[in-house]
Fold:
Amino acid sequence: MQNTKAAQNIWQVIMASSAGTLIEWYDFYIFGSLSVIISEKFFPASNPDLAYIATLATFAVGFIVRPFGAIVFGRLGDITGRKYTFMLTLLIMGGSTFAIGLIPSYSSIGYTAPILVLLLRLLQGLALGGEYGGAATYVAEHSPAHRRGYYTSFIQTTATLGLFVSLAVILVTRTMMSPESFNDWGWRIPFILSVLLVILSYYIRIRMEESPLFAQLKAEGKTSKNPIRESFGKKENLRLVLLALFGAAMGQGVVWYTGQFYALSFLQKTMHIEFVQSNVIIAIALLLGTPLFIYFGHLSDKIGRKKIMMAGMLIAALAYYPIYSVMDRTANISLKQEITDQYKIESNIVHNEGVTVTTTSRVHTYTDGTVLKETEVPVKDGQPEIKKELTVSTPAVALLVFLVFLQVVFVTMVYAPIAAFLVELFPTRIRYTSMSLPYHIGNGIFGGLLPTIATILVTSSGNHLAGLIYPIALALICFVIGMVYIREKPIGELTA
Structure:
C-alpha cells in the first residue's frame, strides 16, 4: 500500500511540475516560432534582414538573462523552498507573454514597440531561469534513486512539447483565418491565449507540497544562509559548476537549439519554405522524437548519464553538415526544371494594419512539384521587398521531416539525462542554485545565441551552411572536456 501511494505521489509531482514547465516553455517559444512575423511588426521594414536579426537578438536576450534568473530564483529556492519559487516564475512568465500580445506595432508607436518587447523578453528570461531548476530539482528530490533519470526525463520533454504546442496553436490559428488576417492581427492570439493556460497551471501548482528532502533540511535548520557564496565561493563546488557547464550543458545547449529552433529558422529564412509547411515539418519531427526523451532517460538509469550525453554531442557534430547540405539542396531551385507554360503573375490587394497595398507575385512551378512564389511588397521610403515562398512536394516534406527528426534524436540523447546528471552533482542545500546557473548559461547563452550567430554567419558569408560552424565547434569542445574531466558517480547517488 505504501509503495502504491508513493508511486501515485511521484506521478502527481511529475504532472504538476510538467504542466507548469510546459506552459512556461510554450510562452517562451511563441516568440521564436513567430520570429519572422514579429520582425515585420516591431522593427522598421526598410531593411528586412536587419529587422530579422534584431528580432533574433531580442529573442536571444531572453536566453542571456536566464543565468541571472537562475541566481535570483535559485537563491530564493534554496532559502524559502522549491514550490513557491516556481509559482512566482510561472506568474511572471505568463504576464509577460500576455503583454507581448497587446503591444502596438512599430508603425503605430515607433521605437517604443521594440523597447517594450525587449523589456518583456527580459522578464521572460528571468522567470525561465528560475523555473527549470526548480521543476527538475523538485521532481528529482521526489524520485527513487534507481529511476531518477526516468522520472526527470518527463520534465525534459516539456521544452520540446512546449515548442510543439506553440507550433500547434499557431498553425490552428493560422488555418482558421486568411494569411492577411493572421499577419495583421491573428498572430497575437497565441500570446493572449497563454493567460488561460497560466491560470490553469497556477491552480495545479498551488496544491503541491514542498520537496521532502528540502522540507527535512529546513526542519533541521540546515538550509543554506547564502547559497550563492556556497555554490561559487567554494573551490570544490565552483569546479563542479564549471565542469557541468563546459563538459555537459554547453554542448547540450547548442545541440538542443540546432535541432529545433535553428532547424525552423533554416527552413523559413534560408530555404524560404512556406510558413505552414515549415511549421508542420518541425511539428511532425518533434512529435515523432519526443518519446525518445523517456527512452534515453530510462537508459541513463541503466548505463549512466555521461555515456549517452557524450555520444549525442559527438554524433550531432559529425552529422550536422551532411544533414543541412541535403536540406539545402531540397530547396535549391537551380537544380530543378521549371514548367515554363505554368508560369503566372498574380496581383493581390492586401490590408495590413489599416494600410492597403497591391502586391505582385510571380509563381514558378517545377517538375518535381515545387512551387516558388516571389512577391513584390511595396516598402515605405525604400525599395520594394521581394519575399520568396517555396512550397515543396510531398516526398520533399517527408525527407525534411526525417532530417529534422534525426536532429531531434540528438536532442533527446543530450537532453534527457541532464536533469538527473545535474541534480546528482550538487548537494541538496545549494542544489537549486548550483545546477541552475550552468544549465542556463549553457542553454541561455551558448544555446540561445545560436540562431542569431548562425544567421549572421549565413547573411555575412552568403554560405547557407556557415551557421553550422558555431554548434559543431561547441559540441566538439564540450565532448572533449566531458570525456576527459567528468567522472561519473554511481548511478542514482545523490550528494548529501
